[in-house]
Amino acid sequence: SHPIAAFFFLAFRLGAILMYLLGSFFTDNFTLVFVVTILLLAFDFWTVKNVSGRLLVGLRWWNEIQEDGSNKWVFESAHPDRQGNSADARLFWWVLYATPVLWILLALTCIFTLKGSWLVIVVIAIILNVANVYGYTQCDK
Question: What is the pLDDT of residue 126?
């Protein structure tokens, strides 16, 4: 069990969502809400990609730029004999897949309410979350 990795896995994701949803209740400064939410999304992306995935499910991915300018995706998995914690794995996969769905619903809300500036935050969140979903889905194969 890796409670610290699980805590930060949830904290950055939940923090970004809560800042996006509730930030305007605490301040009228959209720029502050934007910057804090993007920072939390960036912390989440890096933590999931480099720490949480490795500790909670034994997977890691990254993208290398080749000398010819092309991209090469690299996938790493723990030794097959690794004893993983099923609660950690369940938490990781459920939250990994549920978060982009939530951001997509928030994007639809932005579109229907014509809040273009808020949609920028949501699009960035979707891109970062879908990149992790794609990377870990490929790793798990």
Answer: 97
Identify the band that residue 101 occupies on the pLDDT scale cut at 50, 70 and 90: very high
Rounded to whole angstroms, how far apart are CA atoms 52 and 135?
A: 13
Q: How far apart are CA 50 and CA 44, in angstroms?
A: 10
Q: What is the pLDDT of residue 63?
A: 87
Q: What integer best gives the mean pLDDT of the chain?
A: 91
Tell me which residue range forms the domain holding 54: 3-140
Q: What's the token pair of residue 17?
A: 């969502």
Of 112, 97, 121, 117, the C-alpha closest to 41 is 121
Nearest alpha-carbon partner for 139 in 62, 35, 37, 56: 62
Looking at this protein, which amino acid is placed at residue 37?
Answer: T
Cα separations in angstroms, 139 against 53, 54, 132:
10, 11, 10
- Total of domains in the chain: 1
Which DSSP helix (H) or strand (E) runs through 92? helix 86-113
